[in-house]
Automatic annotation (TrEMBL):
Transmembrane segments: 1197-1223
Origin: domain of life: Eukaryota
Gene3D superfamilies named in the record: TolB, C-terminal domain
Coiled coil segments of this chain: none
Lineage: Eukaryota, Metazoa, Spiralia, Lophotrochozoa, Mollusca
Pfam families attached to this UniProt entry: FXa_inhibition, Ldl_recept_b
InterPro entries with a match to the protein in the record: 6-blade_b-propeller_TolB-like, Cueball_EGF_LRP_Nidogen, EGF, LDLR_classB_rpt, Sushi/SCR/CCP_sf, Sushi_SCR_CCP_dom
Name this protein carries in UniProt: Sushi domain-containing protein
Signal peptide boundaries: 1-21
Species, as recorded: Magallana gigas (Pacific oyster)
Domain Sushi stretches: 1048-1106, 1118-1177
Length: 1273
């Protein structure tokens, strides 16, 4: 942090600590309300938030008075808010209590008269949102588990006065916003396909306006004056906008790893919250620039709402005199009456007619049938209404919704019965056996189906035609059939069959012609309560103590709720929308979302008796045909959208075009001058034309989460890394998406980046392991699908690049302990750190083969730099801000790069001095997600290795270029034969049973092709990458046993530099040590010991103490020394700074490294390779000794640099200490439920953007504490 930034922090801390409360001048009542979890409360910041910014705060004009309002339960989860300051009302949705509340007499300072009133109960426990129509005074909400949208008058106390206005075609609605002037309702649906839709204020005229580039839209808001829609997408980490038709889409900001949860617009700014970063961020709606970040540390911020009493938007006066019986909505076309749920409009379009039954749950004991509002399963506590009494033996129920018939089994009289819900009449249907075990109704053919068994548990499935009044066996001679279910639309019937520990789930046709098992006994454990879900087209059942489901063909077996503790016999299960409902074999009903692990609601029916039957009443469940998109996705290849005419409308994903049949999607792959882009968010590979940046998608069906992409222009083959939950894969396909093949299954490691040696076609890759220093660099043979590790014990390798003609490979490692750029020969030998200074998060790598320069991008410092391949002549190419650079590639004089916080690929001109200039090429593309990798065709030509060019260099598997030639290698676990070129051929010899430091498992016989597990001795750890080992046919293990059990070691921690006397850091070892530069060894601790916990006996900073360095400088002409050991310099070498000299070795000596042919005299008076022996004699002892002595000397240049670094570090530490003691305020416990405090805040800021950390400190007095009274929380 620079001096300017430190000063800013001190200024802000002083301002917020010392501005007295009486200096508050903003009395407008405007402010921002933030809802927080853990515990549930509101933080209120008084004052116009648009006036809060860096300049106003630093000049003393800004205020940050904070109020805190705690609810009377810490579990409160206020996921969404809306407001009407004209009536002093704040509306909140609390997912914990399943309710929407109205906070009355609310203002930004809150007061004693504030009260909380519930207006809607029974909302699902989701992250659903609410919005407020100020023209009609209506509250709208989305319910992500009921999958519907509801509306309700905002100032009513009648919980039944609501209407579900959209209840079909939604998969997982989450965000919602309203513009009453335009008459539009906007909402997001995170089901398939993800989209943003628009409808009228009463749910009519639905239209999908955003259908691509959508992942998880949590919240939406509108600017009705500018007719602009804003939304936050947590999956894409973006804040975006579009007009009301979905056009003119813009990406305002992307913040990688930050998930935005809410957005609200006020004036020229947007305010977004994030629970992952605990922030409220102020962003310009014009430019997307971040103006202010408020860090909240007294809870988890989830929602935000602007409280603006100066807003005088009018209320509609038309509806007050229109005469609607229930609700009135003023549409742009005029007023419209709406009836509450369970009622329909009368012919005069104003009165409302009772439908007799509304969406609900029908339950029965043995004699009574009652119905309850469906919201009972989400904690509504209204009473049930019992419509039918004095029946007998009710067991199992089904409903014919069209005719209002209730069918049930009379277990007392062994008969099937029907009851008219309209005429209150009961009539018998037919006789039934004494043991009916299942019951269902086919509303298409008007048939009743039931299963029954005899005393020997042999049974049948029977069918009765209500039209012909005849019955027959549909399937006979079954083994204890139970829980029969029918799927009329697909003409199928399902049931459970079996007993004891041998159960199956079967499917049969409704004509009785065939039946088969779809779920085998191995997947079943005392199954009960089979239920067919018509909307999801899935079967659900209780499997012992969990709820399972599968598709109707038995595939996609899924576990839902766990530990539901049911009693097995007589238990019924139903699934409505995304809620499971089951009886407990007792006098209560349980419910819970199928997306959660446990039950959520218990409905007590103890006053009613034991539940013997259940049914769902919802007309949508007895459809006569499926929706246009429910059958084969409407025939659409990509996206199917139901239209107003009930026809399927097909659309294509971004980058594809709809073909002439209006069903299928295609893309024309570019063949030359293109770039391939890996979009990790949307699981796509795209092409961008290098000419005009036009983007088209590659039609690769097996791409899911691409991390890196590579292209072989010779074979027209695309290679990519696929990120999987259980490890990554390296795959390939032709450019047209055909011939997909998996080249490598990485197991527990994750191949991250790949590069190709175009001489051999071999792929080099970095592989990241979960354990530190288990990562490696490897090589893959695409044709043989075999690989080999080349460099091991890396931290967190990322990018990789190869230079075959020079024989070098380069990689980056962004391990936080030692980030660096490494270089080695391409066979893995001669490994060295090429660069580690001022490197934090090195990501992309690219080589300029003509200039022999290496380019890299640092994602933390947002810089692109270059250096020559020998580690010299470092240059800064480009510096950006807030982009988080990821990958780069070169083509001609241009460098292309991508970044996680941007929405496009950038093009940079490399100037003659090595700097870069961004040129206009690709515009922002809002549909793109997180771009992880780019690959350019044709790119810069890669010079080939002469040694490997012909016949793979004579190598049978891998030819690995080096600066002096090539080396041959074999796949992992296979050795070379004596010729050094041919890999050993497998045979049929048993492997050795010897196992140093471990033992084979008892079941391992060391036979050829056998895969064995093993255990390790004490103080040894198993190889995390290779937990199993295979015996080859020639008697060799795939991994030598000596490498399987690794001795526990203690990692060296800075500032300890290395151990002396070849001491190994194994458990029990006591070692002498050396310290890093500017640190001196603690004389009282001559040795450190490696403990069994793999920690050292002493802290690294206790054994290595930092000391001050004094610098004496001398100005003189720089000469490099002439007397290098065993070296003869060229006679023309003047040994001045920057001179380049050739050399030879003295007689009797020879070069140690043949690829070093010249020396450069550096500005510090040293040769660039003077620190290593260049020429070695017969013993090599003199060279080694001289090199050690030379390493101990230091130049004035190095001393100056070390001193400056030490001084800067000391100053930085002192500044941090001063900031800490000025800014840190001790937190005290919360005394009351509500505390009001002004200007008590901790404040700090980043160099470019203001960050305000608010941690309101509760007062010590209880006089002004105010308690919230939230009903039923």
């Amino acid at each position: 942090m620079g001096n300017k930034s430190v000063l800013s922090v001190l200024i802000f801390c002083w301002i917020f600590s010392f501005i007295p409360a009486e200096n508050i001048t903003d009395t407008s009542g405007i402010g921002i309300v933030v809802s927080l979890f853990s515990p549930g409360h509101l933080s209120l910041i008084a004052g116009n938030p648009n006036n809060m910014n860096m300049s106003s705060m630093s000049s003393g004009k800004g205020m940050l008075p904070i109020q805190t309002y705690y609810f009377n339960t810490p579990r409160a989860k206020i996921v969404s808010m809306a407001s009407d300051p004209r009536k002093n009302a704040l509306f909140i949705l609390d997912s914990d209590s399943h309710s929407i509340y109205r906070m009355e007499n609310f203002n930004i300072w809150v007061n004693d008269s504030l009260t909380i009133v519930p207006i809607q109960k029974g909302v699902s426990k989701t992250s659903a949102q609410i919005t407020y129509d100020w023209l009609n005074e209506m509250v709208y909400w989305v319910d992500g588990y009921y999958n519907w949208i509801g509306m309700q008058p905002a100032f009513t106390t009648d919980n039944s006065l609501y209407k579900i206005i959209i209840h079909q075609g939604l998969g997982r609605p989450e965000g919602i916003a309203v513009d009453p002037i335009s008459g539009y309702l906007f909402y997001s649906d995170m089901g398939k396909p993800q989209r943003i839709e628009r409808s009228s204020l009463i749910g009519k005229d639905r239209k999908s306006i955003i259908t691509s580039g959508v992942d998880r839209v949590y919240d939406i808001t509108v600017d009705h004056k500018e007719q602009t829609l804003y939304w936050v997408d947590a999956g894409r980490h973006t804040l975006e906008s579009a007009d009301f038709n979905g056009r003119n889409r813009r990406l305002l900001t992307r913040m990688n790893s930050v998930k935005f949860t809410s957005v609200v617009v006020f004036g020229d700014f947007l305010y977004v919250t994030s629970f992952t970063s605990n922030t409220v961020t102020k962003i310009s709606k014009r430019t997307g620039e971040i103006n202010l970040i408020v860090v909240v540390d007294d809870g988890i911020p989830v929602g935000a709402e602007i409280w603006d009493p100066t807003n005088t938007s009018p209320v509609s006066k038309v509806c007050s005199s229109y005469g609607c019986a229930h609700m009135c909505v003023h549409l742009p076309s005029g007023p419209k009456c709406v009836c509450k749920e369970g009622y329909t409009l009368a012919e005069n379009n104003k009165a409302c007619v009772n439908e007799n039954l509304q969406k609900g749950l029908i339950v029965a004991n043995s004699t009574h049938v009652c119905n309850m509002d469906i919201r009972h399963i989400t904690a509504l506590k209204d009473e049930m209404t019992c419509r039918v009494a004095n029946l007998t033996g009710i067991m199992f129920m089904a409903i014919d919704i069209a005719s209002q018939w209730l069918f049930y089994v009379d277990s007392d009289n062994h008969a099937l019965m029907q009851y008219s819900l309209i005429f209150n009449v009961t009539t018998p249907i037919t006789e039934a056996g004494p043991n009916v075990t299942g019951f269902a109704y086919d509303w298409l053919d008007n048939n009743i189906l039931w299963s029954e068994s005899d005393i020997l548990q042999k049974g049948s499935i029977r069918i009765f035609s209500m039209d012909k009044y005849a019955h027959t066996d549909l399937y006979a001679n079954l083994d204890n059939p139970t829980y029969v279910n029918v799927n009329p639309l697909d003409r199928e019937v399902y049931w459970i069959e079996g007993k004891g520990n041998n159960y199956t789930i079967k499917v049969g046709t409704l004509d009785g012609s065939s039946a088969k098992v779809i779920v085998n006994s191995g997947d079943l454990k005392k199954p009960t309560g089979l239920f067919y879900h018509i909307e999801k087209h899935r079967l659900f059942w209780i499997n012992w103590d969990s709820i399972y489901s599968c598709k109707t063909d038995g595939s996609d077996l899924t576990t839902h709720l766990n530990s539901i503790s049911v009693l097995f016999f007589g238990v019924e299960l139903m699934v409505y929308k995304d809620h499971a409902i089951w009886t407990h074999g007792k006098s209560f009903i349980m419910s819970g979302s199928i997306f959660r692990n446990n039950a959520e609601v218990k409905i007590d029916t103890s006053h009613y008796g034991k539940i013997t039957g259940m049914a769902i009443y919802d007309p949508d469940l007895q459809r006569y045909k499926r929706g246009p998109c429910e059958i084969m996705n409407g025939g659409c290849e990509h996206v199917c959208l139901p239209s107003a005419t009930a026809q399927a409308t097909c659309k294509c994903d971004f980058g594809f075009i709809l073909e002439s049949d209006r069903k299928n999607c295609s893309s024309d792959a570019l063949r030359d001058r293109f770039m391939i882009i890996a979009d990790h968010t949307h699981g796509r590979l795209y092409q961008a034309s290098l000419l005009d940046a036009r983007i088209t998608a590659l039609d690769f069906p097996e791409v899911s989460k691409p991390a890196c992409v590579l292209y072989n222009r010779n074979t027209k083959t695309v290679y990519w890394v696929e990120i999987e939950s259980q490890g990554s894969q390296i795959k390939q396909a032709t450019i047209d998406g055909k011939n997909t093949k998996t080249l490598m299954e990485a197991g527990s490691v994750y191949p991250d980046r790949i590069a190709m040696d175009f001489t051999t076609g071999h792929i080099y890759f970095t592989a990241v392991a979960s354990e530190l220093y288990e990562s490696y660099v490897g090589i893959l043979h695409p044709q043989k699908s075999v690989h080999k590790k080349l460099i091991t014990q890396l931290g967190t390798p990322r990018a990789i690049a190869v230079h075959p003609s020079a024989g070098y490979m380069f990689w980056t490692d962004h391990n936080k302990n030692s980030p660096h750029i490494g270089r080695a020969f391409m066979d893995g030998s001669s490994q060295r750190v090429l660069l580690s200074k001022d490197v934090v998060w090195p990501n992309g790598l690219a080589i300029d083969y003509q200039e022999n320069r290496l380019y890299w991008a640092d994602g933390h410092q947002d810089k692109i730099e270059s250096i020559d391949i020998y580690g010299l002549n470092r240059k800064e190419v480009l510096k950006v801000t807030n982009q988080q650079l990821v990958d780069i590639d070169l083509f001609g004089s241009y460098l292309y790069y991508t970044a996680w916080n941007t929405q496009k690929v950038f093009k940079v001109l490399i100037n003659s001095d090595g700097t870069g200039t961004v040129v206009d090429w690709m515009p922002d593309v809002p549909e793109l997600g997180r771009l992880d990798s780019i690959e350019i065709e044709p790119g810069n030509s890669q010079p080939k290795s002469a040694a490997c060019m012909q016949n793979n260099g004579g190598c049978s598997t891998f030819c690995l270029p080096t600066p002096t030639g090539r080396a041959c290698a074999c796949e992992e676990g296979v050795g070379l034969m004596a010729d050094g070129e041919t890999c050993e051929v497998t045979g049929g010899v048993s492997c050795s049973g010897d196992f140093p430091n471990g033992a084979w498992s008892p079941t391992c016989h060391q036979l050829p092709t056998e895969t064995c597990t093993y255990t390790c001795n004490e103080n040894f750890l198993p190889n995390q990458v290779n937990r199993t080992v295979t015996c080859g046919r020639e008697g060799e293990w795939s991994i030598p046993p000596k490498f399987l059990c690794q001795e526990k070691t203690c990692p060296l921690m800075y500032p300890v530099h290395h151990l002396l006397n070849d001491c190994r850091p194994t458990v029990g070892s006591e070692c002498e040590y050396a310290c890093s530069d500017n640190f001196t060894k603690n004389a009282n601790v001559p040795k450190i010991k490696c403990l069994p916990s793999t920690e050292w006996s002493h802290n690294a900073f206790d054994v290595c103490k930092q000391f001050d360095v004094r610098v004496d400088t001398m100005v003189s002409k720089v000469h490099c020394k002439e007397d290098l050991p065993n070296v003869v310099l060229d006679p023309d070498c003047n040994r001045l700074k920057d001179s380049v000299c050739t050399f030879s070795c003295k007689e009797g000596s020879q070069k140690k490294d043949e690829d070093i042919v010249e020396l450069i005299c550096m500005s510090n008076g040293k040769w660039n390779f003077g620190h290593i022996p260049l020429c070695v004699g017969p013993s090599g002892s003199q060279t080694a000794k001289l090199s050690q002595g030379e390493g101990k000397s230091d130049s004035s240049y190095t001393a100056i640099a070390a001193t400056l670094a030490a001084v800067i570090a000391v100053v930085f530490i002192v500044v941090l200490v001063v900031v800490f003691f000025y800014c840190r305020r001790k937190r005290t416990g919360v005394v009351g439920r509500y505390e009001s405090h002004q200007n008590e805040a901790n404040v700090y800021c980043e160099p470019q953007k203001g960050i305000v950390n608010i941690a309101a400190e509760p007062g010590n007095s209880t006089e002004n504490n105010h308690y919230a009274h939230m009903s039923d929380i």
